[in-house]
Write a structure and sequence with these properties.
The protein is of the alpha+beta class. 31% of the residues are buried.
Amino acid sequence: MCDLTDSKNQAPSGEEARFSELLEDSTEDLYEHAPCGFLSTLLDGRIAKANATLLNWLGYERGDLVGRMSFSDLLTVGGRLYHETHFAPLLRMQGEVSGIALELRAADGSYLPVMVTSTVKTGSDGQPLLIRTTLFDARDRRAYETELLRARQEADRESDRLKILNTTLQKTLLPPALANVPGLDVAAHYHIASVDEVGGDFYDLFPLAAGTWGLFLGDVCGKGAAAAAVTSLARYTLRAAAVYNPDPAAVLANLNSVLNHEYQGTDPRFCTVLFGLLTPDTDRGGFRITLASGGHPPALLMRAVGTADFLPTPGGQLIGVLPNAHIATTTVHLAPGDTLLLHTDGLTEAHTTAAGGDDRYGDDALLDFGRQLAPTTASDTIGAVRDLLHAFGTGVDDDTAVLAVHVPRPLSEEQQ
């Protein structure tokens, strides 16, 4: 029969022995060598006790501090001012203040960032006796915050550089100046919804053969560098195609072939475009304009008699989607006093309130807008549109391009 030894009399295991040693660790040693600084001060601030951890951090001997210096003597000038005006009064009122960031001045003149928590110890009668303060070394935290601030400043600088780059790129996609067409007033405006991204709207007016001019206004799907590349390609393709064959339907068919060929596959790119051919009407005066539409919102025609209506080009398909897109055309006479406004959908899809939602401006509102303006001029029309976009504020979440052409009345009629 085996002898069973009482488990209570067994020798303790190695783990139990180490745990026992921890329990026997002196309270004084825990205080002196804690991973944080401990400081006890009298109510007037004089230091009564400081642990070895704090002394080592600051490079002081115990006799240098105890009974000789106050807590505020260890602070920087700014920290001392904060202690006197905020920290100490709040401590007196609440009995505790925690998580305050201060800087201590070490014996060698260097500075030590710390997080400070202080509590007031009271006697049995509730009267305050002394102040106990715990201090945590915040050098790593300060370094982290400094690095975080540096990274944030660098990100801000990078954002500023990107905005400048986007603005510069946007300008290169627009004509520096519109062509001067005898007998025609022209005005245009480009509204940037966000400087953080390059938009895909574009427009131009340029001379072709003697006595004819081409104009176009379009909107590329998407934003950013990819949209900018398509915008540049579309703009120069339209100009080149118009020189080769100025027929508006042929010009857009040419652009459709180029985009459909270049952007096939997983990342198709397309746009909506209006292309117009302007020709002086020698018989009736004014101009004749033939417009071809590739899925673009119709132009707004404001007559000299005070009426306004959209100039429909039904059936025009998006440019770049299908190999053989259907191109719709229409021809209209611009009499003296008439104004034609071309726009991208950033205008009609703008939110009328900052709250967003379904409160889009819409085609009906734009038509009413034109009827209130008519009769008008190109510059007055663009000025009114700019004011309208400004009134929408952040409700304009897409870039907007507008181009207006106006046939002035004879000077004799304008003076009547």
